[in-house]
Amino acid sequence: MTTVSITLQDWRAWQPGRAPCDDSRLSVDAHPRGASVPAMLRRRLNASGRAVCDMLSELDSEASRVLIYASRHGDGDRTLDMLYALAEQEPLSPARFGMSVHNATLGVHSIARGNRRSLQAIAAGGAEVAALFSEARGYFAEGESDVIVVFSDAPVPERFAAHVDEPTDLAVVALHLSASGGRPIHAQPSDSTNAGHARSPQPSDVIAWLLNEASLVCPSRRLTWTLSP
C-alpha cells in the first residue's frame, strides 16, 4: 500500500500571552481583529474564532481550499451558559446555540468569504494532530492538491477544570498542507518509554514544533512527527 506524502507549505498561529518572537507568522496579540469578517458576523466570534478567520484569510485568500478544523474541547463557555439558562428555565438564544457547535467558526468564515468547498470539524480525544494529518492524507488520496487544517483550543470552563487531566492553553494554529512541494512531514513510532509521559498535543505544542523549540508527540497514537528543512 502506497503511503500518501504530506508537506507543509505555510502556517499561521495565535497564542496570546506567549513571548513575542521574530517569526511574523505567530501573533501574540490579545485581541485578533477578524477583519475578513463583516462586523455583523464578527460580533458572534470569540477571540479564537477571530484569530481563525484572520489566518484563513491569509492562507486561503481565494477561499477555494478544503478546510479541516479540530478542537478537543470546543467552546465550552457557550455550552455551559446555555445549560445554566436551561436550569433557570430561561429561553435559549438560537445564535448562541449556533455558535456553540463544533463547526461554527468555519461556518462563519465560509459565509463571510464564500468558501463552497468541503468544511470538516473533528474532535479526537487528544489525538487531534494525528486526525488532522490523517484527514489531509485522505483528501490528497482523492485528488486534492492542498488543504488547510486548523487546530484550536482553550481552557475548559473553571467549573470543569478539576476534571481535566491536562490544563489547556489558549492557542490556534493553521497549516497549509499539500501532497508535494513543501517541507515534508514525517511520522515515526515514538519510544514507548517516553511516549507515555508526554501530554496530548495542543495547538501550543504544534506552534513550538513549528518554531523548532520542541518535538511533536502524540502519546495515544505513539507517534512523533518531524519536519524536514
Description:
By secondary structure, the chain is an alpha/beta fold. The protein has a single domain, classed as Peroxisomal Thiolase, Chain A, domain 1 (3-Layer(aba) Sandwich). The protein has 8 helices and 9 strands. It has helices spanning 39-42, 47-59, 76-87, 94-100, 104-113, 128-141, 192-195, 203-210, and strands at 7-14, 26-27, 66-70, 119-122, 146-153, 171-178, 183-189, 216-218, 223-227. Strands 1, 2, 3, 4, 5, 6, 7, 8 and 9 form a 9-stranded mixed beta sheet that branches. A hairpin with a 4-residue loop joins strand 8 (216-218) and strand 9 (223-227). Helix 2 (47-59) crosses helix 5 and helix 3 runs antiparallel to helix 4 (94-100). The longest helix has 14 residues, at 128-141.
Rg, Å, rounded: 18 Å
CATH top level class name? Alpha Beta
Topology-level CATH name: Peroxisomal Thiolase, Chain A, domain 1
Distance between the termini: 27 Å
CATH superfamily: Thiolase/Chalcone synthase
Keywords summarizing the entry:
globular; 8 helices; 229 residues; Peroxisomal Thiolase, Chain A, domain 1; 31% helix; alpha/beta; single chain
Summarize the structure.
By secondary structure, this protein is α/β, with parallel strands linked by helices.
Please specify the SSE layout and strand pairing.
Layout: E1 7-14, E2 26-27, H1 39-42, H2 47-59, E3 66-70, H3 76-87, H4 94-100, H5 104-113, E4 119-122, H6 128-141, E5 146-153, E6 171-178, E7 183-189, H7 192-195, H8 203-210, E8 216-218, E9 223-227
Parallel strand pairs: 1-2, 3-4, 3-5
Antiparallel strand pairs: 1-6, 1-7, 5-6, 7-9, 8-9
